[in-house]
Amino acid sequence: MSMIEKLLALFSSSEEYSLRQRMLTRTALFMCTVLAILSVGVWHYANTSADYSYDRLLSSASVTMLDGINVAKNQVHIDLPYSGFEILQLAPDDKIYYAIYGPNADFLSGYSDLPVKLTDQKTDLMEPHYVLHTYKGKKVRFIVRQKRLSERSVAGNVTIILGQTTLARDTQMRDTLYAALTTLMVVMGTALLVMWIAINRALSPLNWLSSQLNTQSAMDKQNLPTTKMLEVAPLTQAINDYRQQWLSALAAMRDFIADASHQIRTAQATTKAQLEIALTSDNEQIDKNTINEIYKDHTKLTRLTNQLLAHATIVHRGDRQTFSVLAMQKILQDVITQAVRDYAHMDIEFEYVPPLQEVEILGDELVLKEALRNVIDNAVQHGSHTLNTSAIIRISLHHRQENHQVWVEDNGPGIPENMMNKALERFVKVGSNTQGSGLGLAIAQSAALTHRGQLSLSKSELGGLAVCFSFPHITDANDV
Amino acid sequence: MFRIAFACYLIFSTLPLIAQESVLRLYSATDISAIRPLLHEFETLNPEVTILYREFNTQELYDELLDPTLPPPDVVISSASDLQVKLVNDGFAQPIEDVPDVSSHQPWAQWSNELFGFTYEPIVFVYNKEAFHNRSIPHTHEALAEQLREQAKFYQGRIGTYDAASSGLGYLVASQDEVTFSLTGRLQESLGRARADIHCCTSLLLTRLTTGDLVFGYNLLGSYAMAKAMNNEHIGVIVPEDYALVIVRSAFVHRDAMEAELAADFIAYLRSSAGQKTIANNTALMPLDRTLGSHNDPENQLNSSTNFHPIRLGPELLLYLDQHKQTQFLNSWSQALGD
Amino acid sequence: MRVLLTEDNQGLAQSIVQYFSEMGHAIDWVDSAEKAESILAHDTIEVLILDVNLPGKSGFELLTSLRSRKNSIPVLILTARAEVDDRVSALDLGADDYLVKPFDLRELAARCRALVRRERGKSDNEIHCGNLSFNSATKVVKVNQETIELRPREVQMLELFLTHLDRMLTKDDIANRLYNFDEAYTPNAVEQTLTRLRKQLQGSTLIIKTVRGLGYLAHVHD
Q1: CATH class as words, domain C2-123
Q2: For C213, which of A337, A345, A351 is closest by C-beta distance?
Q3: What is the ipTM, given to two decimal places?
Q4: pLDDT in tens, C61-87
Q5: B121-246+318-337 adopts what CATH topology?
Q6: Residue B332 gets which letter from DSSP?
Q7: Alpha carbon separation from C144 to A44, A252, B102, C141, C154 (Å, rounded)
Q8: For chain A, which residues lie within 8 Å of any Cβ of chain B, measuring from their own Cβ?
Q9: Class for the domain spanning A318-479
Q10: Which of A338, B266, B313, C111 is the least buried, fewest Cβ under 10 Å from its Cβ?
């Protein structure tokens, strides 16, 4: 288990973590990596530059010393110049070893036991080369250089092997390395410090926000104070908006519960009163009419309950995760078939006007069907089905440029135009028929809204009410 | 050519060795009489230490270390800087730390952290006072060369100098003369023509000068000469005014030292102000710290305006130890001096 | 009609048992899926009314195990769950129909009859729809026990409707059934046949609705 694995495990764990710490650790790790890479580079550079400078000393000293090797009296004459050694004085503490070999690799002068092999004299003629060896327990850098003697008597290469211990070289290397590393460390340290300050600065709005939120109650209608920080403003705005939404949703819920309580309790009170009357009646035989009344009222209560639950369900299924691509024709056919079956015993004529081309929307099938069914139910309730004329309910589907539309029209008495907006509100009953709960259209509108569509009412050419759902095209729905 | 080699064991402390006592083994090319006060003082400062001192000729010391017949020493001291440098270069020394600087202006008195100089001994002319009565004494190399030419009869057979061939110090001085002074060749020829008497050791030369066998000594070690002149009215010492080579006596801790730490302490002592004062006041040597002067130098010649040329402790001294260079130099030297 | 009711609410169960008994149907009532299973193993039941929320094994689990054993008994699911999804999963799991509580007892009985009718029609030649009966072998149609004379095309049409009760049939569906490939027919021909059939069946409980733009749907109103 290496250190790195542990660190990785630390990062990937799902436990709570500090953003500041994580950013700092990651930055520090990253910088350490960079430092390590750079250090290798610097080390290499320091080595190369130290080698370069001290190899030049060796090189010039060896050249100078070779100048002192000549042919005199038909043999190799060695008179090493003082300057050769003086050049090497530039590395004052380093020791010097040398050896001179004649044309036949015969040892002429210096140290005869140097650990450097003589190179092939024919190849490497003028190019000196450098080798590092350990000699007398010390690291010694050697140069091997040759000089051609071409007198008649003596012809061939003399070789000088000149070595110098690496004290000065190593010192320079270390100095370069430490100087560079120190600079690097200071830069990295400064960067980390700046990073730390920057992170703290960047995170301060969070603290400010949480302190602001802590001092306020969740139900507080007051907005968060405006901030001058451009980056934070959208966040406070979003929190304000979010809170407003919550507050309005809460208010809506409160209204809904009040309305629903009122409706349900009224209906319950009615049936309860009727039942009490029936029970306290002196008549042993319960009047069938009374039972009928009770049954009718109970049916209304049932319907109301169903619709309230359906409405609540639709409103809370508003999340788009359950949305899928729906073929509207199929849905309408299902809904109509269901309605025709359920209202088969009534004198109602259903009509379906199919669209000219396929209509697909993004939506929740169950919610849509529930909403359409409620509108159809509404049409049945309010439609005209007297003895003479049969009620007509026309359901049509249109593919329009700007949206898709589903129309449900009837030939009933309809709603006066000035009442139409009111009709969409919950529990508002418009018109003469009192059978409705006043929720059908409200359910439909909620459904339309959760589909980012609209519900609008108008007067139908059939004479009654025209209810129009409009839904955005799939591409538009995705964009929002 | 003759050599005098005397080896002597000197045990200063005659008390039986007790267990904690350590022995510091010194192999040195220095007159025991010249260095004794230093040894005494070191023993006083370190009562548990016994110094074992063995005296050599410079060349013998070198040979002994290359091809040992005796147990390895702890400290090696010699005035032959070139041989010392060669020994250090060849790995006979070990580095030591915390050795005090005598003066920050003397980087040449130390090589790396292995070889440490501790004296400042000019090379001087010595003359016999009676012989030079009413004669002008040469104060420069050039003047000497001139007198040798002009008064050849006076100097004939009566001028002495070191034997470069047998004395390590003699070789060093002669070769450094060549490096430093462009007219050395001419001077050597003149010496040869004057049939200069060559000897291995300063002491012999000085004795012959006192007796009047020799009238002039060329390139003698200033420390011994001045010490001798202090007690002897027959001879006088001249520090050449044009230039004076300076020998820096140096010491290093031997690679195989048994008492390396003690050895390092000893070298540190040599360069400490206590050691330097002792050198100045009690020994025939002359301290590296030139502000101290020497009790053997009443005329304060050491601090005159002479152009002193200390022989730097450094690898360039290896040059004249090159086999070919040495042979060539000794050849020309022998030819010049006609030996 | 032999019915098994699986329902843990005693009040509701008793009402259903009473209603069905008064209608003259044989009905047994159990309050758990386990008991239902043991009865189904021994007795012949024509339709199973199954509540979803049961103590112990749920209605869905019973349904799943029945279907996995290739038991094709018609099953009508009763659900009180608010989630509309229950309906879908019920049908997916192999239920034949479902009703959401609260429901009309009349509606429940009609749905059960429709299921039994469909099942009997598969094996018997005789189909009963309220006051109308049809023998698929002899092609005799009776309303209130009285034989009604129908033309062959009308009989064919009636048979088609009876086998596709409560389902939407397009004009093409019907025409394909009534006419061969080589028989030419006018679009009005189907309409005319239907009009005549409706007239003949007046007084029966079979209603054939026309949905313009979509097709025709037959429903038994009893």
Answers
A1: alpha beta
A2: A351
A3: 0.83
A4: 899 898 888 888 999 988 876 555 555
A5: D-Maltodextrin-Binding Protein; domain 2 (3.40.190)
A6: H
A7: 110, 56, 143, 10, 19
A8: 77-80, 82, 84-86, 88-89, 92-97, 108-110, 136-138, 167
A9: alpha beta
A10: A338
